[in-house]
Structures are given as structure tokens and as C-alpha cells.
Amino acid sequence: RNSATSAPLRLWFFDTATMPASSPLATFLDGRVSIHVGDLTRHAVDALVNAANASLLGGGGVDGAIHRAGGPAILDACRAIRASRWPEGLPTGEAVLTTAGDLPARYVIHTVGPVYGQHGGREAELLANCYRNSLQLAADNALTSLAFPAISTGVYGYPPSEAAQVVSTTLTAVLATLPGMAEVRLVFFSPADGAIFLRHHRF
Ligand code: AR6
């Protein structure tokens, strides 16, 4: 066996494990919040936030991408949390913490966003709870950097322009209470989604 062909290809100037996933489109709140476009799973932060569903057993969208890239350790941890703490499923707006498996992040925080139009007008409050509870859970675990996807704006149908207002006002309020939370990245999958956020935020 030729060791030269089986050695990992690792060029110092293109090390995907340590290079930043993207440079920000914009920053807010004295640089504590940054806006990115690309794949959330590439971000090497203390915790990625997952837009999960109540089952915590995986799905499509960013949830599928996190479980695919992170491997089976994440699903094992989710099953254990279901069995011990949330046998009926994780309620909308709540958040739980697991390993990040093989991902470059250290942990994954799973939260369940509202399905737009299914909560009798409480959608904005529930979406804010996702961001607030994820940030508080991170702070309780002494984590200082987080990356969020645009929770609920895919399969769950939340209009991205409305979500931008909820997310920016919630981050402004919550980060004022969490001085140790140094870095919050908002990661949009497409440039169009990033542009909608930048048009509608209220930072
Ligand atoms: N990186 C960043 N953003 C992504 C990625 C990625 N790899 N993949 C998708 N997005 P969605 P939801 C964006 O549907 O609306 C799942 O099946 C996507 O373009 O992932 O909260 C769960 O299991 C969109 O802007 O989450 C639940 O059943 C945003 O992430 C349900 O979907 C959120 O889209 C949750 O629906």
C-alpha cells in the first residue's frame, strides 16, 4: 500500500477545518452580530443552532444537512434527550444542546420554530423564543459564539422579511442581557435571503 496516496491532503493555505466559512456581508451591535451567506455546517463556532422539528429525529433542510455532516452521534444524543426529558417531543420555541459529532462546531443547539399560520397569531413570539432560549442555553453552558440559520423560513413558511424584524429586535434585547456572548452569526443559505434580511432588519 502506498502511503503517499492514502495520506490526507492538507495544504496549509487551504485547510477547510480552520479557514473561516465566509466573510460577513455586514455586522451589527458593535460587531457582535454578523451576516453570512453559505452552508451553516461549515461554521467553526461554539454551537450551531438547528431548525429542528418536535421529534428531534432529523428531517430535511438545514436539519438534514446538520445530521448528514455531523454523523450519527447527534441523532444518538437527540434520542437520549427525547427519552429522558421530552418524550412527547420538544415544544415550539424550546432549545436543547447536543454534541456536534463530526462538525467543526463544538455543539448543536436544537430548537423548533413555529409553523407560520399554525399558532393563532403567536408566531412572532414563538420565533423570538427560539432565538432567546438558544442564546440563554448557550450562555448557561459558557459558550460565547453561535451560528443561526434562518429558523422557520423554509419548510415552516415564515416570511423572511417578517422574520428579519423579529430576529433583529430579539437579538438586540437578548444580547444586552448576555455580555459574554461575543459572536452571533446569522447564516443565510442564498444571497437573496441575505439581501432580504439586510432590507428588513431593525438593528
Ligand atoms: N445552511 C444554511 N441554511 C440552510 C441550509 C444550510 N445547509 N439548508 C437549508 N437552509 P428549513 P424550517 C436554510 O426548511 O423552515 C426540516 O425538515 C433554508 O434555505 O431547514 O425551520 C426540519 O426537520 C431556509 O432559509 O427549516 C423541520 O421539520 C432556512 O435554512 C422543518 O424542516 C430554514 O429552512 C423546519 O423548517
UniProtKB/TrEMBL annotation:
<dbReference type="Pfam" id="PF01661">
    <property type="entry name" value="Macro"/>
</dbReference>
<protein>
    <recommendedName>
        <fullName>Macro domain-containing protein</fullName>
    </recommendedName>
</protein>
<dbReference type="InterPro" id="IPR043472">
    <property type="entry name" value="Macro_dom-like"/>
</dbReference>
<feature type="domain" description="Macro">
    <location>
        <begin position="20"/>
        <end position="203"/>
    </location>
</feature>
<dbReference type="InterPro" id="IPR002589">
    <property type="entry name" value="Macro_dom"/>
</dbReference>
